[in-house]
Model the fold of this input.
Amino acid sequence: MSEQLIIFDTTLRDGEQSPGASMTKDEKVRIAKSLERMRVDIIEAGFPIASVGDFESVQAVARAVTESRVCGLARALGNDIERAGEALKDANASRIHTFIATSPIHMKMKLRMEPDQVIENAVKAVQRARQYTDDVEFSPEDAGRSEPDFLCRILEAVIDAGARTLNIPDTVGYNVPQQFGHLIHTLRERIPNSDKAVFSVHCHNDLGLAVANSLSAVANGARQVECTINGLGERAGNAALEEIVMAVRTRQDLFNCDTNIDTTQIVAASRLVSGITGFAVQPNKAIVGANAFAHESGIHQDGVLKNRETYEIMRAEDVGWHTNRIVLGKHSGRNAFRTRLEELGVIYESETELNAVFQRFKELADKKHEVFDEDIQALVSDTVAPNNERVRLISLKVTSETGETPVAMMTLCVDEEEKQVEMSGSGPVDAAFRAIEEIVQSQTELQLYSVNNITSGTDSQGEVNVRLEKGGRIVSGQGADTDIVIASAKAYIQALNKIIMPVDRAHPQV
Ligand code: KIV
Ligand code: ZN
Done:
């Protein structure tokens, strides 16, 4: 009988620590619901003490999700744990994840603590967390560079204090698979009470080994993997959920465990996360890249047509790629539209939201001959905007002509007041961005601007990503429209709305 491999998703916490990937509360709830639909076991929703916004996001996820367990991160500090416990109060099932660094360099340089003090703090933190929930996870941060003897001591102590999951992070992505697997094996063998806890791993991808290290740990008895959609995360990211899940599922001959994940929801979740964060998925990315199941060379195509297993180890439809890509036309009704959204794993909050998206779909179907699945997914991301936005686009007209300077006439609603300007620029997008800045005066710096067509053909919607920076804070915005200048303005405004919201936010590991 295969054992269960627990999937702990940290897209909303570690994924969000990636510069530019910050998400609003509503966006986090949408991603959490998509993870719940995928049957993720545990969703790490955030670091509640970081800010009021982070607290409210964790609370909102805890209230919205009923099937998955919702987890909040806390340093080994009383106030952190109290805040996490409060944020998770309404969850159907909750977990507190507390951590403290254990590597010599972190203890000396960051914590300025002696090893015994670190153990004492860890034990107190676990005991405190147990006052809020029976489900407490402990992580010795930078375990990948910690001394195994010390890890054994601290882990034995926290199990006695009530930790039920021991998560071993390779915080800086320094380990290699054989070594990391051996570490898990050693800890399980040497810690006398190790059978009272589930061993978990949390690998960063600095050497491109996060997934390989996690799988090596699983082969050595780890039964929880911490991962993120699309491998989003600090620096080079975390282990990619989709790769872990599909490796274990595809190689059941090697792993005596499997996950509960509904793999057909993977592509929808990947698109949702990349749409919200603006972190595009590279075409050759395993499982969720656009080319992951495409065959170019004639020899491969011939083989696949004769018997797909000649060149395919997984079926595209098993991870949520749809062969039936043409969806609906302008005569399609609301029910057909709703069914298609559900098939695609697209999350909408209410009937009002569905109506707004349906209205946008009708407008798009009027402009565009065929509406594809990708169009629908972009429409939903574009329509379901938070209702607390300070800046809204009312209208945009751009004139552009050979030999003339393009001019944008822009009307925005800023804090409920309509403002209008006319600005020129080196191109239509430049003129539109200057017009927005003329009104908002945000003094942000544009770090990235990119346009991709969502489907093929010149009538395709353009999807624009914009990344803005102000005072070291980076945010991203996305917009989609068949008119790329309008898509660009929408993306810029979405990013602006994020950056003009004041935040005073703590980073868990600094
Ligand atoms: O990478 C890391 O060590 C972490 C911990 C907070 C688990 O994210
Ligand atoms: Zn991490």
In short: The longest strand covers residues 391-399. The chain has four domains: 3-277, 292-322, 334-382, 386-499. The pocket of zinc ion (ligand 2) is lined by residues 14, 169, 171, 202, 204 (CB under 6 Å).
